Amino acid sequence: MVRRSHDRETLTPRMPVAAWLSVLSLDAVLVAVAWQQLLMLSFCDRGATWAECGSLAATVWLVYVADRLLDAARLDLSQPHTLRHRFYLRHRRVFFAGWVVLLLADTLVVVRYLSPELLRSGLVLASAVLVYGAGVHFPSASSDAKGSLLRTRLRPALVPKEFRVGVLFALGVSLTAWTSLIFHGDSGEDRQVFFSLAAATVAMAVLFGVNCVLVARFERHLDRAQSFASIATRWQSRGEREMQLSLCVFAIVVTLPMVVMMLQLPASVGTAVAACALGLFVLAFVSDRRCRQPTSMEVQQTTQDTFTFFDVRGVWVDVILWTPPMVILCCM
């Protein structure tokens, strides 16, 4: 009887091909590298060096894997959960070993090959990421009771974590371009170029934030089951109509300032922003028509006690973010 229970816990569902980028945390890496290269070519007239590109890719992977390992550590397998969290729980030792090795390699590259200015800027941003991570995964060390901790995790934050992620990700992606312009740029063109880069950074923050909001929306039932904090869990007491209305208003509010910002962007960046915004906008409203509990689009429950789900819409929101800049880079 005990052996059967153990076998049930180690069972894993068949991995859909579309899920591999997500479960290996490579989707965020593709987004970061594509946008970094596009910004460098558009604003600095050069591509990112192998050290700049490699350190960004490694750092993004380290952050995302750490976040998912911490989520997987408190995963309740008796409740519905995502395929990626189940995958990280099952392979946590492999991911942890890879995480340590890559951290050491990334540290070597950052210290030895990056400029002192970029290194200092990166340390400041890394501190902000650590503060964010501590606030999300360790919200209240004094909350001993499970109910108290649950209320702390689901308590509405002043700024939802999805928007904080969007801002931090945009700053990380644009950090190389900012450092290059500030310390090595042409002072005669600084004001206009800085304004354009600032507009691009804000536009990316909006895009990345919307990406996180949509993922939270698609996975809201699983987040509630696992007591994971997200912007979608703040609407626990509201019906689907209220959530759909909120998403429509949100899309309109996001679209208007982005149209204004794109007027100040280089053609390559503006085109990428517009394509990503349009893709997210369409996906948001198409998904509204199919708003429901996960069923046919996902991997079904694998045993009587284990509920593992995969929503392909979560893959599409990431594809929408890295495909336009990749295509534009191939044409430049």
UniProtKB/TrEMBL annotation:
Membrane-crossing segments per the record: 12-35, 47-66, 94-115, 121-142, 163-183, 195-216, 244-263, 269-287
This protein's UniProt keywords: Membrane, Transmembrane, Transmembrane helix
Top-level division of the source organism's lineage: Bacteria
Name of the protein described by the UniProt record: Transmembrane protein
Annotated organism of origin: Aporhodopirellula rubra
Lineage, uppermost ranks: Bacteria, Pseudomonadati, Planctomycetota, Planctomycetia, Pirellulales
